[in-house]
Amino acid sequence: MNTDKIYQAAIIGAGPIGIELAVAMKRAGVEYVHFDAQQIGYTISWYAPQTRFFSSNERISIAGVPLLTPEQMKATREQYLTYLRGVVEQFDLAINTYEPVIDLQPRDGIIEIITQPASGQRHWRTRSVVLCTGGTDRPRMLNVPGENLPHVSHYFQDPHQYFRKKLLIVGGRNSAVEAALRCHHAGAQVSLSYRRKALNEQGIKYWLMPEFQSLVDTGRIKAYFNSQIKSITPTSVQMQLDNSTSFEIESDFVLLLTGYEQDSSLMRKAGVVIGGPSHRPQFDPQTMQTNVPNLYVAGTAIGGTQERFSVFIENCHEHVDKIMRHRFGVMAEASELPGVSQMPES
Predict the structure, then answer these.
(1) How does pLDDT run across 84-120, given as a tens digit for each residue?
(2) Residue 261: exposed, middle, or buried by beta-carbon count in 10 A (0-12, 13-18, 19+)?
(3) Which residues of 56-65 are buried (b: 16+ CB within 10 A; e: fewer)?
(4) Structure confidence by residue, pLDDT tens digits, 281-305
(5) What is residue 75's DSSP assignment?
(6) d(Cα 185, Cα 314) in Å, to the nearest integer?
(7) Is 282 helix (H, G, I), strand (E, B) or coil?
(8) How many whole angstroms separate alpha carbon 216 and alpha carbon 224?
(9) Are the C-beta atoms of 325 and 334 separated by less than 8 Å?
(10) What does the pLDDT read at residue 201?
(11) What 3-state DSSP class applies to 265?
(12) Most buried by CB count within 10 Å: which residue of 257, 282, 285, 293?
């Protein structure tokens, strides 16, 4: 597709903040086009079944649409994906899903967008772009032998597959602890390896720690602190303690829940300055505009690769209003809640 049509704006990314921004633009009469490389809410879709958000429902609701659950509890993965689909349907949002953006070319006040859907490359033109691309595009690799074996995964999905199997989980944050508990209850023989001497309880859902600690204390979950993975084979994992002691444990499956990284290649192609230890994009916090004129960033994309999570759905709602006011001179109608520093949902 090559067209002379010039849109007022383009949104790249259809997670919660991207969808909230699309609603704001539609309400304001802004002619925009919207892309996502996958399906809407893709990052949330790879959470394990029935994973429950830490954030309360009102803090992750978007566009002024209440998020209600039948049991009046915090939303699960499935409930939130249903909610996002409902918001898209309610506002009849046009989102080009499964259409990855492969290049951005700003020149002479116009930004050309090149996409690569299955049907072939397409070209679009717009006066402004908002990147709502998140910060968990790829796993943080350990770079050890055996990491790519078929029984090794960086994504926790269904605990059922580990029933009556020996499972080693690597990691020490919320996702690792929750996976350990859920797999233990599904009948797996669970071990956990963490490179530090103890878990940081501030980064783990408060209702998980007492049970996890009890299972470790009674030996029902084996915890290896101050340990690092040296290599993985089809039947075992070679590990090393901080004191250089090496040992091997048997394993049928290995879950490497060691975090995720942002893919900033699209930002770099567009000329956005990336810097700092988290490789965050440079932007004006008052307007959300990057160093590239008319190129904005919103949502968890502003955090780069977060080592200690401080940017979540719940403290990104204000980005929508800042962009709408700066670029289009209108206030977003979406509800805002004050940002509260909380731990990551996964």
Answers:
(1) 999 999 999 999 999 999 999 999 999 999 999 999 9
(2) middle
(3) bbebbbbbeb
(4) 999 999 999 999 999 999 999 999 9
(5) P
(6) 30
(7) coil
(8) 10
(9) no
(10) 83
(11) helix
(12) 257
Euclidean distance between CA atoms 272 and 282, whole angstroms: 7
Determine contact, residues 298/131, Cβ cutoff 8 Å: yes
pLDDT of residue 16: 97
Hey, what amino acid is at 44?
I
CA dihedral 257, 137, 68, 75 (to 10 degrees): 0
Please, which residues have CB within 8 angstroms of residue 129's CB and are 6 or more apart in sequence? 9, 10, 11, 12, 104, 111, 113, 270, 294, 295, 296
The Cα–Cα gap between 243 and 248 comes to 15
| pLDDT tens, position by position, 224-271 | 999 999 999 999 999 999 888 999 999 999 999 999 999 999 999 999
Residue 50 falls in which region: left (phi positive, over 0), alpha (psi -120 to 50) or beta: left
Q: Across 68-127, where does the E strand assignment appear?
A: 101-107, 110-115, 122-126
Cβ 159 vs Cβ 188: under 8 Å: yes
Phi (first) and psi of residue 63, to 5 degrees:
60, 25
Confidence class for position 342, pLDDT limits 50, 70, 90? very low
> How many CA atoms, within 13 angstroms, populate the side-chain half-sphere of residue 213?
11
C-alpha radius of gyration, the chain, whole number: 22
- Say how many residues make up the chain: 346
Which residue(s) pair with 48 in the sheet?
Answer: none
Residue closest to 306 by CA, chosen among 113, 137, 92, 97: 137
